[in-house]
Design goal:
Chitinase A, domain 3, five-stranded mixed sheet, alpha+beta, globular, 126 residues, 6 helices, Tscrpt_elong_fac_GreA/B_C
Length: 126
């Protein structure tokens, strides 16, 4: 278990970062966030999002943190499949919910209780 935690420096950083944790309660309690999330999620499931190469559930995404210049290779998955140690984040996490529906070169702003961060989408894969 300890080997799993310490062998990936990036995953240790991610475990401590609130942007990768489940944010479903915060989304449900804020009607504006809930409406935006539902619109993004619904659109991400359409054929049009595939044609426009937008992020949807199952996509691999390469992100760059604009403050630290850290590069992250993540996959947006359902909450049951989320495992940050292997780079799978839930679409209900703070970052995952903001990524849905974004295109390449988009900048995503993530606000958590402790800080805010900006991420640039470098590439989107299937």
């Amino acid at each position: 278990m300890l080997n799993c935690i310490y062998c990936f420096k990036k995953s240790l950083i991610c475990l401590l970062n609130c942007a990768f944790r489940d944010a479903s309660y915060q989304i449900l309690m804020n009607p504006v966030k809930l409406s935006i999330f539902l619109n993004r999620f619904e659109f991400s499931q359409t054929h049009a999002s595939r044609l426009e190469n937008k992020i949807r559930v199952g996509c691999r995404v390469v992100l760059k943190n604009l403050a630290t210049h850290q590069i992250m290779n993540l996959r947006v998955v359902s909450p049951e499949q989320a495992c940050i140690e292997i780079g799978d984040i839930s679409y209900l996490s703070t970052l995952g919910s903001e990524l849905l529906g974004c295109q390449r070169e988009s900048i995503v702003y993530v606000d958590t209780l402790k800080h805010s961060s900006a991420w640039k989408v470098l590439s989107i894969g299937r």
